Amino acid sequence: MSLTRRQVLKYGTFATAGATLFGTQSLLAPRSMAATTLTGVTYLPDSYKALTYGSNRFVEMLQENGGDLLNVDFHDSGQLLKVDEQLPALRARSIDFMFHTFSYITRSIPILGVTGLPGVVGELYRNPERLRQGSPLMELINEVLAEENLYMLTSGGGILEPEYLWSTEGSPIRNLDDVRGKKIRIVGFEATQAFEKYNVGATRIPSSETYMALQRGTVDAGIFNISTIIGRSLQEQLQYCYKLPITGFSVAPFMLRDTWDRLDDETRAIIQQAADWYDANFIDHCNNDIYPNEYWPMVEEAGIEIIEPTEEDLDTFNAGVEEVWDMWKEEVGQEVGDRAIALALGQA
């Protein structure tokens, strides 16, 4: 039977089929020379210049410093696994690490939803230190992740600039009332809940399919980070950006907790060095360099009208966030939820 590598991963037989495809040397086990080989993935393509800046350098550092101890087999652009296949493959030990956006996996890993809660996202964006390595919030997140045998090496040092509402020329959204009845591309669960009362037609569409969805009128608008706008050339299909800070996320490297714990000290130190760099540079580079100096000028050059929300709209939107918080707390537990929100808001 002939299997592609994607099929092997998809059907959970990576380890056994790997021997068939590549000989008796396992792709996941240490090589005979005692080097450890780690297989990693990201679904993000290089067109996401900002979002892949961190993962590219992280992998480069592993390759540069691995020596005879560590080899890295890294696959980007969804070549090995699609976005919804990454987390199951990690849990099945078909891969060893992954870079993933939080918003795609908060339903599977609810604790990550704290980074995208309306009314919290602005505080985390303005105060990135609250999510850096060693912070109480980061420690709490990893305590909860450990219960599922997951480990987040770093958040990237905060969260990216919030996601805003972007709409087409034919279905403009200039204020909160304009949202009602619109077909909106929303990925994050928290944002979906926040807009339930506005009777929107929330649609979960992968970023790779969003350009055509906007072009064909499948959706009228979307909640996007500016990286998605530029990475998928969505500025060609959009006309308005209503800068209501709705939700947010980061892109982080994840491993299984027991995989991390079983690494020898030298190998773990190599990976930790890359994680330290990622924590210090990824979010800072995106938010303070690429976005203001490159991406927002591209949006303005495309003729997109940028609309700041009124104080009334901000107050109206934020007045309903506690309902979303309560639903999220039901997912993570009241005590953990209260503590996480307090840490994110700087109240603990």
TrEMBL record:
Q: Which organism is it from?
A: Halomonas urumqiensis
One GO term of the biological process aspect: transmembrane transport
Record keywords: Signal
Name this protein carries in UniProt:
C4-dicarboxylate ABC transporter substrate-binding protein
Question: Which Gene3D superfamilies does UniProt cross-reference here?
Answer: Bacterial extracellular solute-binding protein, family 7
Please name the PROSITE patterns in this protein's record.
TAT
Q: Write one Pfam family the protein is assigned to.
A: DctP
Show the InterPro entries listed in the entry.
DctP_fam (IPR018389), TAT_signal (IPR006311), TRAP_DctP_sf (IPR038404)
- Give the SUPFAM superfamilies listed for this entry: Periplasmic binding protein-like II
